[in-house]
Structure formats: C-alpha cells, structure tokens
Description:
118 residues, mainly alpha, two-stranded antiparallel sheet, 2 helices, 61% helix, rod-shaped
Amino acid sequence: MPASTDAAPDQAQRDARRMDSWSIAWMFLALVVWGWFAFLMLADYGPEFYGRARCRGPLVGPLSEGPLCQSELRQWPALLGILALAVITTVIAAATMVYAKLLSRLARPDGPGAPPQD
C-alpha cells in the first residue's frame, strides 16, 4: 500500500511541472502575437521613397490611401482579428499559469494547507 501513496505525490508534481511548462509556452506565444500586432500597428511599410517607407503604420501617422499601401494585414478587420488572437492567448497563458501554481501547491509533500517555505 505505501507504494501507491508515494506515487500519487510524484504524479501530482509531474503534472504541476508539465502545466508550468505549458504556461510558459502559452506566455511566449502571447508575447509573439502581441509583438506581431505592435509591429503591424507601428511599423512603416511599402516601397521606399528617399530612404523611408512610403506607407505609415496605422498608429504612427495618417493612413496612406495610395494603391501601393493596400496591405491586407494593415486593414482594421485583420488588425482587430490579430488583437483578438493576442487577447485569447494572453487569457489562456494566465489561466494555465494559475492552474500550474495551484497544482504545485496541492502537490507539495507537506500538504496544501501548510504555509509556504522560503
């Protein structure tokens, strides 16, 4: 019987470490999507004209209306979709981080009610 009680905390600790790894992966993915969104909103794009891109980012300057500045990813529906993707990945990252911390606290050998040791 003691072998089964020793296996349960080990399994719980492995689950907590695995969820912690997943939370880190989701956090990196959220950072990448937020970086992509910021790049699309701020960076100039299009052909260069006197050493500077001809089209301005949506948040940097006035919207360029020329035919050379028609980028599908710079239109507001696409930008709002990327923003929604960034928010969803951030929420999932936060939820998996909270769940991983909860699992690690429950998997402690001294029990979930014991005060944390520094």
